[in-house]
Amino acid sequence: MNIDHIAIVVRDVEKAALEYKNILQVNDIQFETVDSEGVKLAILKLNNGRIELMEPLKTNSPIQKFLDKNGEGLHHIALETNDIDNTIANMKNNCAVKFLGNVRTGSENTKIIFIHPKSLHGVLLELCSYPT
Q1: Where do the domains of the chain lie, and which CATH numbers do they carry?
Q2: Is the predicted pLDDT of residue 50 greater than 90, yes or no?
Q3: Structure pTM?
């Protein structure tokens, strides 16, 4: 597995993207809305990964609840796997891992699933797999 991205919750994705662009001198930024997660993203493409800035689009979304409780900041770390279904099966068979929901479509048409923070010492981890 490789680190795919670090996700950061922000109140205003356009403003935050401009600030990150200027501070980090990142020119490759793409915007995307992921309806299934209720977020608007700014995806900052770095040489060795991505930063995803996430703005909640729904007042009842998990991202809005996170923002209300914690404010802006680090939300999760995502790891890329070549075969998400096999990775999940191995984790279910060999580890005491609790998943949040089922596999669904994420940004850039990836297949994603989240691992509950209680399974990983308080860190929300996303597994993602790109289409082949």
Answers
A1: 2-129 (3.10.180.10)
A2: yes
A3: 0.92
Sheet holding 99-105, edge to edge: 29-34, 39-46, 49-56, 2-9, 73-80, 125-129, 111-115, 99-105
CA-nearest of 1, 6, 25 to 88 is 1
User: In the numeric block, which tokens belong to residue 25?
Assistant: 């001198």
**What is the spatial distance between Cα 72 and Cα 65, in angstroms, rounded to a whole number?**
11
Q: Identity (one letter) of the amino acid at 98?
A: K
- With beta carbons less than 8 A apart as the criterion, state whether 44 and 28 touch: yes
Under 8 Å between Cβ of 37 and 106: yes
Question: In which band, very low, low, confident or very high, does the pLDDT at 36 lie, cut at 50, 70 and 90?
Answer: confident
Locus of tokens 């922000």:
10
Q: Is 131 helix (H, G, I), strand (E, B) or coil?
A: coil
